[in-house]
Amino acid sequence: MHAVPWLDGGSIDPSASAQVRDLRRVPIHPDHWYPLAWSSEVRRGRALGVLFAGEPIVLARTESGTLFALEDRCAHRQVPLHAGVVEGDCIRCGYHGWTYDSTGRCVNVPYLGRERLPNGVRAYPCREVHGLIFVFPGDVALANARPLPALPSVANKAYKTRRFGRVVKCHYSFMHENLMDMNHQFLHRRQMGQMRARARGRRRGEGWLEVDYTFARKGKQPVGEALVFGASSKNGDQDDQDVMTVRTEYPYQTLQIRSGDGTLVMDLWIVYVPLDAAQRTNRTFGLLSIRRPGIPLALDLAWPLLVWFTERIFKEDRWIVELEQEAHDKQGADWNHEVFPVINELRDLLRNCGGRTVIALRKAGDTA
Amino acid sequence: MHAVPWLDGGSIDPSASAQVRDLRRVPIHPDHWYPLAWSSEVRRGRALGVLFAGEPIVLARTESGTLFALEDRCAHRQVPLHAGVVEGDCIRCGYHGWTYDSTGRCVNVPYLGRERLPNGVRAYPCREVHGLIFVFPGDVALANARPLPALPSVANKAYKTRRFGRVVKCHYSFMHENLMDMNHQFLHRRQMGQMRARARGRRRGEGWLEVDYTFARKGKQPVGEALVFGASSKNGDQDDQDVMTVRTEYPYQTLQIRSGDGTLVMDLWIVYVPLDAAQRTNRTFGLLSIRRPGIPLALDLAWPLLVWFTERIFKEDRWIVELEQEAHDKQGADWNHEVFPVINELRDLLRNCGGRTVIALRKAGDTA
Amino acid sequence: MHAVPWLDGGSIDPSASAQVRDLRRVPIHPDHWYPLAWSSEVRRGRALGVLFAGEPIVLARTESGTLFALEDRCAHRQVPLHAGVVEGDCIRCGYHGWTYDSTGRCVNVPYLGRERLPNGVRAYPCREVHGLIFVFPGDVALANARPLPALPSVANKAYKTRRFGRVVKCHYSFMHENLMDMNHQFLHRRQMGQMRARARGRRRGEGWLEVDYTFARKGKQPVGEALVFGASSKNGDQDDQDVMTVRTEYPYQTLQIRSGDGTLVMDLWIVYVPLDAAQRTNRTFGLLSIRRPGIPLALDLAWPLLVWFTERIFKEDRWIVELEQEAHDKQGADWNHEVFPVINELRDLLRNCGGRTVIALRKAGDTA
User: Where is each Rieske domain found (chains A, B, C) (predicted)?
Assistant: First the structure.
């Protein structure tokens, strides 16, 4: 056992941190673009009901292909609009047929005169990029100024990208901490073998934080890992030349691996979208881009293995973060006793960038 | 789009209605006769546990056929009496054998002297009509004066009656509003085709409210509907001659269709009995009487289709009212934005006729 | 019906008892040895997560066979240690690899220097007897002085012992009352036939209470019962010579049957261990010892029948006590109306011996 030199002794003071806001109750900040569905989930002429932190949102695609996002409840009797019908450029409630256009305006109540039409429902800015449907759930006035994530590797033909995701029953903060603390390789010992992560340095700025890691292997490298990440040149307790950088750029997270010559060989972009109002459940959207090797088709052939490998890893991560959430629910407070400075900084970042209060449901018509 | 002339503009004021009692929290009034089971559910020598607004009630039928209704818990250890045994004219708790007669008096504790018998349990007035077991859960002194529903078509051989029902997870008020607002034909567009309801007039009195509708068809009449209700003589956007009257006579509801010559061709009687204390779930009991046509057996042959048709309609209604209840639960208040005056009057009626407070559980022995 | 002479009239006063502490909310007292698992559930090199009144405890057995019990959550991120790995004499958290020895001390954090190791987790006294793993969840200082239960019949070759148990969804007090009140034979009428219990006398002391019963049969003895307990010499309404003694010696319970000549023919030891913090669920551990008859192998041959018979009885008991708990949950208070003095005394005993307040979760590290 050896001391890791860059651990700063002063940052660990659980009694002081007990006074601060419980991170697991900090809502995600709504003034960002969040993917709420894959493009393929919303077919032409159909609607899909999704959730952002308890807010019901309907994504509708017209027959001509236009996409729009509205509050997912009829102003009349509050039933979800996604249970209705997409008709022309509008969506029609399935109960009494009230009709809304893509801006949320009520344009028809079959049994009421046009001059007496009620208020409509809220509309959300909505954009589609790289197979993801992004919605801006916060202050509409800020939407245009706020950039969508860039995702350069996804657009680059030198990379092959896997889209993946699923629902995980925990607060989004557990997900950020899981990925950023590479000391959790022990969790993946069956896939990864005995590896030790070494944190090599960290940087931070306004709204972001990143840390570099190298890895030392103890014992033999498993075949699966070698196929996915390439065989490591050395064995024994020597560090590999690859550098992994994990970055939280609020609210997104990336994990990039660069080889010794600086080539970006793996580029993961991931975000955890809270589903329920209490933000105890998130839907994860991930884009994992792998640089194609020199040999044509090699990556395509190895793809099923990569899928299997990442699914296994993700399954273990999900299992452990859900156990963390369960413990928090039972204990009613954040009892974590963090000793790793990167994670303590990450927690501060998530606290500072998070929303002020839990997002309240808005009464239909208030914003129309 | 056309203005419906009889809409009164003054009645729609959501800001004012925000002050009134939340209709979805108004308990049903207990001083009425409610069916709690079908006669066939309580066989001779057996007992059945049922619920009225969270109150457990046991219906027991002796071997000789007498029916009685008691509080469904033993005065001793509170276990349900329906888990016990009907013996002679009594019911015996299945745990330690305490025995109660049909008035709820404790007549035997096997290990205790008769002179020391404890108090018994509450008995409920109970009557059996047309295959339904009615119980009076309110003030016993009022039971005899309060009439049972008449149900003349059920007793009339000119009609064939279908008994139906199921559990619906919503407050009873959503059911009343669903049936009374015939503008919800849009919900049943797959069964009914494109129809438009026109409200033709409404009447009200002490404890009741009714509205007449005629229907205009747009496009072709589906075969199923034609078989059940008869082929409509005209097509196109012309009103049919049939008049439908929907009536809430607290706490029951009826829907009657009369042909152009005034013949009652369909007569539905329905009631929604709350099961749980919060009254978020109801058991529906319905009697649907259809006048037999001139041709013998025609109705019997069409019966399976009618069953299928009404089941489909009912399934859609259940689906939508449960979505309404879910929305209310999530929003914690009644955000409905009603524009149809009939429904606003119906809501007032249900509020005014409803119970004062949620029915409290009575401690065993308090009323004996 | 006849008066049972030794019933004392003065003890039944529900209005007075309404003032006392609700027995169903009295936590079990932690200063006793409780079995938390069967020995066979914790194999070498493995760990098992168990619960005592909501407190998570991990039982770990090293490859060399040593057993230890720790608080079942890592001091770091609160995930259960039972999800980790037993390594040497230690247990290692499955997430970041923090390692604890059998006293709960944290002896390794792979990425931290030894001089900076954090506090560990709580350790529990732990002993293994007769195939049961006992843990002392209360004040550690009292553990050595407090005896483990003796269980002489289990160790005696003249008896054959059946180990049984399962989870029952009720407060432990319902279990004690169920077994001690033999007037509940009516519940087991299908297995036992028509029997009447007669309470023959009761004794009590500090922390214990016991009552003797004899049984009178009405009608024919079922074959199953005869095989298990022996054919009763007489039929008709005459008392059998066997005496059954039911004893609560807090927190354990025993039921012993002695034949006319004083031989102990059946010896049951049983305990109900609360699993959840609200103590609405318990895990029952039972040891049922039957004296081997003169004929070799007779008991072994009859064993499957005995298993079937006791399972049936236990199933009925579980069913009824869970109904009692459901009634209590619904009523929110103890409405029981007890008339049997033994049970009223038992309730006082359980109240007096019970814990003071609900056991609070301890924050990791508080006790290390």
Answer: 33-135
